[in-house]
Amino acid sequence: MNAKAPTTLDGKEGEYHAKIFAAARDLQGKFTKPVALEEAINRVDFYNTGVSFSEDDKRMYFTRAKYNNNGVEISQIYLSKWENEKWSVPYPIESLLSEYRTRHPYEGELFGSKVLYFISDMPGGFGGYDIYYSPISGENYGTPVNLGPIVNTLKDEESPFFRDGTLYFSSKGHPGMGGLDNFYTEWNGTAWSKPTNMGYNYNSSYDDSFLRFNKSGNQGFVVSNRVHKEKKKFKNTETCCDDIYVIQIRDLVINLKALVNNGKGKLDGAIVELYEGKGKSPVEVKTNSLDNDFVFLLDSDKTYKAIIKRDGYHPDSIEFNTNGIFDDYTFSKTVTLKEKPAPVKRVVSRNEPIQLSSIYFDYDDDKILPDAEKDLSYLKSLMDKYPDMVIELSSHTDSRGDGEYNKKLSQRRANSTRNWLLEEGIAAQRIRAVGYGESKLLNRCRDKVKCSEEEHQINRRSEFKIIAGPQTIEIQVEE
Fold first, then answer.
1. Residues 185, 192 contacting (CB under 8 angstroms)
2. DSSP code at position 381
3. How many structural domains does the chain have?
């Protein structure tokens, strides 16, 4: 299709001032021919623009302006109310009347109350047009308040639009793609966030403003003078005029696709746990006994960690985030698990200490950590295998703290370990719990010796030894 011929002025244009039009939309999404609102709204010889509505659709705000030599001479915000099935005669909002220009009204919220956002070049701003708000109380509109330097810049800010705690606006002062760009800033209850550029399609290298979303949030509109093949030209200038564009909005589809292998290729039977942020519990857990692929649907602007496990293999993990993703995206990750060596069997005798390698305690605490379950379960299996075996279950601390206190702390830790086994059905007379405190350190970390946390943790250990029953038992040791 050829571009339309340039538009020329020949003095026969008639009434050329901007008017507010309405166009209905059918079920197929097509707009009917636009119809201008009555003259009570579209006052002759004035530019009537920037229309917006209250949430209940009973108040219509718009700008009425007069130009002089292509400059804005007068610009005021008007209000019309829906009464008796029609729009009432509009009137200017009195508290906003001044010798300075106000325009682009939009009703929203701030500090939990209704306000009217608008732009103005009144004194006290940061340069050009700034965004202001006026508190709404019933029929009264309060004194304008500047939105401040986080939002406003030395250049023009325009076309504010508020929805669900987020203020959308256009600006020439914030870093953009060219001309006016659409931005958004979020209100946290006390301050606005640093404005974020809405990105490609919402913006172009031309002027883009008046971003709006419908109530369901699945469609938007933007005003732009960007070039397109059917655009009218004025004096051979392709960017002379603004057009309204429809933006179809859909949910982003962000996935994690994880493949689990071993050294030989595909590895089935793995378990993948997905965590959000610093969460300690997985938000989703998947297993696949027949294949090695896993797919998770992700949310935007979040950090994730996936832990991959499989019996007989060392676990592994991957970390990533979905920040700044504006289009469908799949994270493709391949994890190769390393096989654990086969456990080695060895024979231990009476009174030979056997360390329970996963039963550690946090500093100055007697709560058993979740990782201890593996060793505790194995110890229970030995107690079941050798029903006449009686053990001493001992706990040890590091050297930090008072010696007597450490002895009591280790006794509490030994009791905690013993209680776990009792709850699993092991008879109480088969377990003697002993706390040795810091009397049997395994390394150099004695009092006044500087050691790392990892070195101290080696001494915060649990052990058991046979004190009655079989002379020897066979245990498995992972190398």
1. yes
2. H
3. 3
